[in-house]
Amino acid sequence: MTAYFRPTTLDEALAIRAARDLEIIAGGTDVYPNKTTRAGWGRMAHKDVLDITAIPGLDRVEEIDAHWRIGCLVTWTDVVRAALPPLFDGLKAAAMEIGGQQIQNRATLIGNLCTASPAGDGIPNLLALDAEVEVASLRGTRSEPVETFLDGYRHTTCAADEIVTALRIPKRGGRGAFVKLGARRYLVISIVMAAGVIEADADGAIRHARVVVGACSPVARRLRELEERLVGQSLSPVLPAIVQPEDLAELAPLDDVRASAAYRLAAAEALTRDLLAGVADARERKAA
Protein backbone atom coordinates (compact mmCIF):
# COMPACT_ATOMS: atom_id res chain seq x y z
CA MET A 1 0.00 0.00 0.00
CA THR A 2 1.26 3.49 -0.85
CA ALA A 3 2.17 5.60 2.17
CA TYR A 4 1.11 9.26 2.25
CA PHE A 5 2.95 11.95 4.22
CA ARG A 6 1.88 15.59 4.70
CA PRO A 7 4.42 17.27 6.99
CA THR A 8 3.89 20.77 8.37
CA THR A 9 7.56 21.82 8.55
CA LEU A 10 10.39 21.72 6.04
CA ASP A 11 12.66 19.90 8.50
CA GLU A 12 10.09 17.14 8.86
CA ALA A 13 9.72 16.90 5.10
CA LEU A 14 13.48 16.65 4.60
CA ALA A 15 13.71 13.88 7.20
CA ILE A 16 11.01 11.89 5.40
CA ARG A 17 12.64 12.54 2.03
CA ALA A 18 15.99 11.27 3.32
CA ALA A 19 14.48 8.07 4.69
CA ARG A 20 12.33 6.90 1.77
CA ASP A 21 12.12 6.61 -1.99
CA LEU A 22 9.02 8.69 -2.69
CA GLU A 23 7.32 11.11 -5.03
CA ILE A 24 6.90 14.77 -4.07
CA ILE A 25 3.54 16.43 -4.69
CA ALA A 26 2.99 20.18 -4.76
CA GLY A 27 0.36 20.79 -7.47
CA GLY A 28 0.06 17.16 -8.56
CA THR A 29 -0.75 18.07 -12.17
CA ASP A 30 2.12 15.97 -13.53
CA VAL A 31 2.10 13.20 -10.92
CA TYR A 32 -1.45 12.00 -11.45
CA PRO A 33 -1.44 11.92 -15.29
CA ASN A 34 1.87 10.05 -15.17
CA LYS A 35 0.32 7.52 -12.78
CA THR A 36 -2.56 6.99 -15.20
CA THR A 37 -0.13 6.49 -18.09
CA ARG A 38 1.83 3.89 -16.12
CA ALA A 39 -1.39 2.09 -15.20
CA GLY A 40 -2.37 2.00 -18.88
CA TRP A 41 0.82 0.03 -19.55
CA GLY A 42 0.10 -2.33 -16.66
CA ARG A 43 2.50 -0.76 -14.16
CA MET A 44 0.23 -0.32 -11.17
CA ALA A 45 2.82 0.32 -8.45
CA HIS A 46 3.24 3.86 -7.12
CA LYS A 47 5.91 5.32 -4.89
CA ASP A 48 5.09 6.65 -1.45
CA VAL A 49 3.87 10.26 -1.59
CA LEU A 50 5.33 13.32 0.14
CA ASP A 51 2.79 16.15 0.02
CA ILE A 52 4.54 19.45 0.82
CA THR A 53 1.49 21.71 0.52
CA ALA A 54 1.04 22.13 4.30
CA ILE A 55 4.51 23.64 4.83
CA PRO A 56 4.15 27.39 5.44
CA GLY A 57 6.20 30.03 3.63
CA LEU A 58 6.80 28.12 0.40
CA ASP A 59 4.05 29.90 -1.57
CA ARG A 60 5.60 33.38 -1.69
CA VAL A 61 6.94 35.60 -4.45
CA GLU A 62 9.25 38.04 -2.69
CA GLU A 63 12.23 40.35 -3.10
CA ILE A 64 15.28 39.32 -1.08
CA ASP A 65 18.42 41.43 -1.44
CA ALA A 66 19.52 41.32 -5.10
CA HIS A 67 17.10 38.54 -6.10
CA TRP A 68 13.48 37.70 -6.59
CA ARG A 69 12.60 34.49 -4.77
CA ILE A 70 9.77 32.24 -5.97
CA GLY A 71 8.82 29.48 -3.54
CA CYS A 72 8.18 25.91 -4.62
CA LEU A 73 4.42 26.16 -3.97
CA VAL A 74 3.95 29.25 -6.16
CA THR A 75 1.49 28.45 -8.95
CA TRP A 76 1.29 29.81 -12.47
CA THR A 77 -1.74 31.85 -11.44
CA ASP A 78 0.30 33.35 -8.60
CA VAL A 79 2.93 34.44 -11.13
CA VAL A 80 0.34 36.06 -13.41
CA ARG A 81 -1.11 38.01 -10.48
CA ALA A 82 2.20 39.01 -8.90
CA ALA A 83 3.45 42.60 -9.21
CA LEU A 84 6.59 41.77 -11.18
CA PRO A 85 8.65 44.01 -13.50
CA PRO A 86 8.78 43.67 -17.33
CA LEU A 87 11.72 41.29 -16.86
CA PHE A 88 9.09 38.62 -16.08
CA ASP A 89 6.79 39.31 -19.05
CA GLY A 90 7.93 36.15 -20.83
CA LEU A 91 7.36 33.98 -17.77
CA LYS A 92 3.89 35.50 -17.33
CA ALA A 93 3.08 34.84 -20.99
CA ALA A 94 4.09 31.19 -20.54
CA ALA A 95 2.00 30.99 -17.36
CA MET A 96 -1.13 31.88 -19.35
CA GLU A 97 -0.35 29.22 -21.99
CA ILE A 98 0.06 26.26 -19.62
CA GLY A 99 -3.06 24.10 -19.63
CA GLY A 100 -6.39 25.64 -18.68
CA GLN A 101 -7.17 27.88 -15.74
CA GLN A 102 -7.73 24.94 -13.40
CA ILE A 103 -4.23 23.64 -14.16
CA GLN A 104 -2.73 27.12 -13.77
CA ASN A 105 -4.38 27.40 -10.35
CA ARG A 106 -2.74 24.18 -9.13
CA ALA A 107 0.46 23.60 -11.11
CA THR A 108 3.69 25.05 -9.75
CA LEU A 109 6.67 26.56 -11.56
CA ILE A 110 9.06 24.26 -9.76
CA GLY A 111 6.96 21.20 -10.55
CA ASN A 112 7.23 22.14 -14.23
CA LEU A 113 10.99 22.53 -13.82
CA CYS A 114 11.53 19.27 -11.95
CA THR A 115 9.51 17.25 -14.46
CA ALA A 116 12.22 18.45 -16.88
CA SER A 117 10.19 17.83 -20.02
CA PRO A 118 11.77 19.28 -23.19
CA ALA A 119 8.33 20.81 -23.85
CA GLY A 120 8.04 22.46 -20.42
CA ASP A 121 6.95 26.03 -21.20
CA GLY A 122 8.47 27.55 -18.08
CA ILE A 123 11.99 26.23 -18.59
CA PRO A 124 13.20 28.44 -21.48
CA ASN A 125 12.00 31.48 -19.55
CA LEU A 126 13.92 30.44 -16.43
CA LEU A 127 17.08 30.04 -18.50
CA ALA A 128 16.53 33.47 -20.05
CA LEU A 129 16.09 34.92 -16.54
CA ASP A 130 19.41 33.48 -15.27
CA ALA A 131 17.40 31.61 -12.63
CA GLU A 132 18.97 29.46 -9.95
CA VAL A 133 17.36 26.65 -7.99
CA GLU A 134 17.53 26.54 -4.22
CA VAL A 135 17.79 22.92 -3.07
CA ALA A 136 17.52 21.74 0.54
CA SER A 137 18.35 18.50 2.35
CA LEU A 138 19.35 17.45 5.86
CA ARG A 139 22.91 18.14 4.67
CA GLY A 140 22.15 21.82 4.11
CA THR A 141 21.03 24.15 1.33
CA ARG A 142 22.71 24.66 -2.02
CA SER A 143 22.08 26.78 -5.12
CA GLU A 144 22.61 25.78 -8.74
CA PRO A 145 21.88 27.48 -12.07
CA VAL A 146 18.85 26.07 -13.86
CA GLU A 147 21.09 25.51 -16.87
CA THR A 148 23.16 22.85 -15.06
CA PHE A 149 20.32 21.62 -12.83
CA LEU A 150 18.69 20.24 -15.99
CA ASP A 151 21.26 17.64 -17.01
CA GLY A 152 19.34 15.48 -19.47
CA TYR A 153 16.00 14.38 -20.87
CA ARG A 154 13.48 14.49 -17.99
CA HIS A 155 16.37 14.47 -15.52
CA THR A 156 17.84 16.91 -13.02
CA THR A 157 20.70 16.96 -10.52
CA CYS A 158 18.25 16.89 -7.59
CA ALA A 159 19.47 14.08 -5.34
CA ALA A 160 17.23 11.44 -3.77
CA ASP A 161 17.33 13.21 -0.39
CA GLU A 162 16.77 16.75 -1.71
CA ILE A 163 13.76 19.03 -2.20
CA VAL A 164 13.79 22.06 -4.48
CA THR A 165 12.48 24.84 -2.25
CA ALA A 166 12.67 27.96 -4.45
CA LEU A 167 13.85 29.73 -7.56
CA ARG A 168 16.14 32.75 -7.29
CA ILE A 169 16.18 35.27 -10.12
CA PRO A 170 18.66 38.16 -10.11
CA LYS A 171 17.23 41.66 -10.27
CA ARG A 172 18.13 43.43 -13.48
CA GLY A 173 16.53 45.54 -16.18
CA GLY A 174 15.17 44.34 -19.45
CA ARG A 175 11.97 42.85 -20.78
CA GLY A 176 11.08 39.20 -21.14
CA ALA A 177 9.18 37.65 -24.03
CA PHE A 178 7.81 34.21 -24.96
CA VAL A 179 6.30 32.65 -28.08
CA LYS A 180 5.23 29.07 -28.73
CA LEU A 181 3.92 26.91 -31.54
CA GLY A 182 1.42 24.15 -30.92
CA ALA A 183 -1.03 22.10 -32.93
CA ARG A 184 -3.81 24.45 -31.82
CA ARG A 185 -4.11 27.76 -29.95
CA TYR A 186 -4.86 26.58 -26.41
CA LEU A 187 -4.42 23.54 -24.15
CA VAL A 188 -1.57 22.13 -26.20
CA ILE A 189 1.94 20.76 -25.72
CA SER A 190 4.54 22.92 -27.42
CA ILE A 191 6.04 21.81 -30.72
CA VAL A 192 8.62 24.60 -30.43
CA MET A 193 8.95 27.61 -28.13
CA ALA A 194 11.31 30.52 -27.71
CA ALA A 195 11.94 32.79 -24.74
CA GLY A 196 14.19 35.75 -24.26
CA VAL A 197 15.22 38.64 -22.07
CA ILE A 198 16.47 41.74 -23.86
CA GLU A 199 17.92 44.73 -22.01
CA ALA A 200 18.54 47.95 -23.94
CA ASP A 201 19.80 51.42 -23.05
CA ALA A 202 17.77 54.63 -23.38
CA ASP A 203 18.64 54.88 -27.08
CA GLY A 204 17.44 51.35 -27.80
CA ALA A 205 20.87 49.72 -28.16
CA ILE A 206 20.91 46.18 -26.77
CA ARG A 207 23.37 45.69 -23.91
CA HIS A 208 22.28 42.26 -22.68
CA ALA A 209 20.47 39.42 -24.43
CA ARG A 210 19.51 35.86 -23.60
CA VAL A 211 17.56 33.82 -26.15
CA VAL A 212 16.45 30.24 -25.49
CA VAL A 213 14.67 27.62 -27.61
CA GLY A 214 12.70 24.75 -26.08
CA ALA A 215 11.32 21.44 -27.37
CA CYS A 216 14.16 21.19 -29.90
CA SER A 217 16.68 19.28 -27.77
CA PRO A 218 16.63 16.99 -24.72
CA VAL A 219 16.89 20.20 -22.67
CA ALA A 220 16.18 23.82 -23.66
CA ARG A 221 19.19 25.52 -25.28
CA ARG A 222 20.50 29.07 -25.27
CA LEU A 223 21.47 30.52 -28.66
CA ARG A 224 24.78 31.95 -27.48
CA GLU A 225 26.15 33.06 -30.83
CA LEU A 226 22.97 34.99 -31.52
CA GLU A 227 23.08 36.53 -28.04
CA GLU A 228 26.59 37.83 -28.68
CA ARG A 229 25.63 39.34 -32.03
CA LEU A 230 22.56 41.03 -30.59
CA VAL A 231 24.63 43.12 -28.16
CA GLY A 232 25.03 46.59 -29.64
CA GLN A 233 22.19 46.13 -32.13
CA SER A 234 19.28 48.55 -32.13
CA LEU A 235 15.79 47.54 -31.08
CA SER A 236 14.17 48.25 -34.44
CA PRO A 237 11.91 46.46 -36.94
CA VAL A 238 14.96 45.07 -38.78
CA LEU A 239 16.23 43.24 -35.67
CA PRO A 240 14.74 39.81 -36.63
CA ALA A 241 16.87 39.76 -39.78
CA ILE A 242 19.97 39.16 -37.66
CA VAL A 243 18.81 35.57 -36.98
CA GLN A 244 20.66 33.07 -39.19
CA PRO A 245 20.26 29.27 -39.55
CA GLU A 246 23.72 28.71 -38.01
CA ASP A 247 22.48 30.33 -34.79
CA LEU A 248 20.47 27.15 -34.20
CA ALA A 249 23.44 24.79 -34.57
CA GLU A 250 23.29 23.70 -30.89
CA LEU A 251 19.73 22.41 -31.27
CA ALA A 252 19.08 18.69 -31.76
CA PRO A 253 15.36 18.25 -32.55
CA LEU A 254 13.82 14.80 -32.89
CA ASP A 255 11.05 13.38 -35.04
CA ASP A 256 7.96 12.51 -33.01
CA VAL A 257 4.17 12.40 -33.34
CA ARG A 258 3.89 16.20 -33.08
CA ALA A 259 6.47 17.26 -35.68
CA SER A 260 9.51 16.20 -37.69
CA ALA A 261 12.98 17.37 -36.74
CA ALA A 262 13.24 19.45 -39.92
CA TYR A 263 9.94 21.17 -39.22
CA ARG A 264 10.97 21.92 -35.65
CA LEU A 265 14.26 23.45 -36.78
CA ALA A 266 12.54 25.69 -39.33
CA ALA A 267 9.90 26.66 -36.78
CA ALA A 268 12.55 27.47 -34.18
CA GLU A 269 14.19 29.92 -36.58
CA ALA A 270 10.84 31.55 -37.38
CA LEU A 271 9.82 31.77 -33.71
CA THR A 272 13.15 33.30 -32.74
CA ARG A 273 12.57 36.01 -35.33
CA ASP A 274 9.02 36.48 -34.03
CA LEU A 275 10.36 36.80 -30.49
CA LEU A 276 12.78 39.58 -31.45
CA ALA A 277 10.15 41.31 -33.58
CA GLY A 278 7.81 41.36 -30.61
CA VAL A 279 10.42 42.90 -28.32
CA ALA A 280 11.31 45.55 -30.92
CA ASP A 281 7.63 46.30 -31.54
CA ALA A 282 7.00 46.72 -27.80
CA ARG A 283 9.69 49.40 -27.67
CA GLU A 284 8.29 51.13 -30.76
CA ARG A 285 4.81 51.26 -29.16
CA LYS A 286 6.27 52.57 -25.90
CA ALA A 287 8.22 55.29 -27.73
CA ALA A 288 5.09 56.31 -29.63
Report on this model:
The protein has 288 residues and is of the alpha+beta class. 32% of the residues lie in helices and 25% in strands. It is built from ten helices and 14 strands. It has a five-stranded antiparallel beta sheet with strand order 4-5-10-6-7. A four-stranded antiparallel beta sheet has the order 11-12-13-14, with helices on both faces. The longest helix is centred in the C-terminal third of the chain and has 27 residues, at 261-287. The mean pLDDT is 93.
- Strand arrangement, largest sheet? 4-5-10-6-7
Task: Please report the distance between the alpha carbons of the first and last residues.
Answer: 64 Å
* Contiguous runs where pLDDT drops below 50 for at least 5 residues: none
The average pLDDT score comes to 93
- Report the sheet-strand fraction: 15-25%
> Main β-sheet, in a few words?
5 strands, antiparallel
Shape-level CATH architecture of the domain at 175-287: 2-Layer Sandwich
Oligomer: single chain
Number of helical runs? 10
CATH class of the domain at 175-287: Alpha Beta
Classify the fold: give the CATH topology of the domain at 175-287.
Answer: Enolase-like, domain 1
Structural class category: alpha+beta
Q: Give the proportion of residues in helices.
A: 25-40%
- The number of strands is 14
